[in-house]
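Customer escalation, tier 2.

The customer says the design service returned an amino acid string that "doesn't look like it belongs to this structure." They asked us to rerun it and document both sides in this ticket. The original structure tokens are below, unchanged.
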């Protein structure tokens, strides 16, 4: 459940303040039943309690067999994976988990060596990375991300933009032309944005963007995924690749145990960056 989704709930669900534990539990169960997944941060903010209070609530509900906890929230019993059918607006995604994405981008930037060629995929985490490396003149960037290209183009970082059809409002370049262009160059590292990751692999909302991601993967020596913890156990319409095609996953929280085990089996190096939550305690 994201901020945009939360704002669409009836006010009676999310305008409640300082509910006693029993009432909070009942409301949490209603939201899990309705949406499949609930986020600790969203519920804590809506109920005006601390993240720790909501974690205790979810722990109590899990002990009773009513929910299954995932990192960052919980899902209904028997539902580990959450399917995201619709792509949220770019502006909404940019605001969601912005602090975590900045921390992830900062950690990812440290993985780029001097004089390397890199590929930048689309998405809000990748845009945060572009902002981190914009002042570097010792790397060469290839991208289908017009948001990132605009950031890099204003500074000293050399950037090559693929030509093709612009998919708005994502401002990604898609189609046969960019796929063909990608085949003519090589990148040391590809930084990939995803909408979700499950034990079966990495996913994205857009089949058109996914085709570009796959073309990039074929030309990259190393694939690095930037993925904040809200995307764990989420999948959407288009599978990008299996876990074993990715070398590194950069995130701000450790994955849940079942996903961590799958990543380990696939030999994916998980980097958990330093991250301080901005959530205020009640």
């Amino acid at each position: 459940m994201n901020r945009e989704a939360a704002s669409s709930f009836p006010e009676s669900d999310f305008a409640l303040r300082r509910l006693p534990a029993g009432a909070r539990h009942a409301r949490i169960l209603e939201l899990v039943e309705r949406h499949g997944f609930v986020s600790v941060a969203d519920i804590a903010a809506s109920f005006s309690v601390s993240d720790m209070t909501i974690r205790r609530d979810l722990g109590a509900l899990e002990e009773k067999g009513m929910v299954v906890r995932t990192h960052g929230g919980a899902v209904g019993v028997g539902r580990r994976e959450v399917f995201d059918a619709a792509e949220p607006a770019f502006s909404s995604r940019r605001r969601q988990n912005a602090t975590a994405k900045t921390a992830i981008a900062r950690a990812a930037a440290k993985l780029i060596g001097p004089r390397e060629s890199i590929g930048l995929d689309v998405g809000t985490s990748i845009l945060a990375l572009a902002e981190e490396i914009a002042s570097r003149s010792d790397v060469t960037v290839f991208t289908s991300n017009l948001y990132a290209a605009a950031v890099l183009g204003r500074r000293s970082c050399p950037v090559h933009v693929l030509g093709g059809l612009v998919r708005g409002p994502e401002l990604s370049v898609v189609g046969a032309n960019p796929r063909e262009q990608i085949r003519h160059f090589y990148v040391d590292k590809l930084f990939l944005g995803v909408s979700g990751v499950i034990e079966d692999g990495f996913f994205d909302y857009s089949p058109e963007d996914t085709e570009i991601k796959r073309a990039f993967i074929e030309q990259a020596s190393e694939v690095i995924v930037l993925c904040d913890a809200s995307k764990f156990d989420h999948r959407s319409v288009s599978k990008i690749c299996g876990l074993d095609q990715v070398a590194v996953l950069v995130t701000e929280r450790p994955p849940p145990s079942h996903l961590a085990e799958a990543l380990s089996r696939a030999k994916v190096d998980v980097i958990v960056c330093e991250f301080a939550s901005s959530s205020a305690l009640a």
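Tier 2 assessment: The sequence is consistent with the input. The domain at 3-80 is CATH 1.10.10.10 (Arc Repressor Mutant, subunit A). The first strand starts at residue 37 and ends at 39. Sent an explanation to the customer and offered a walkthrough call.
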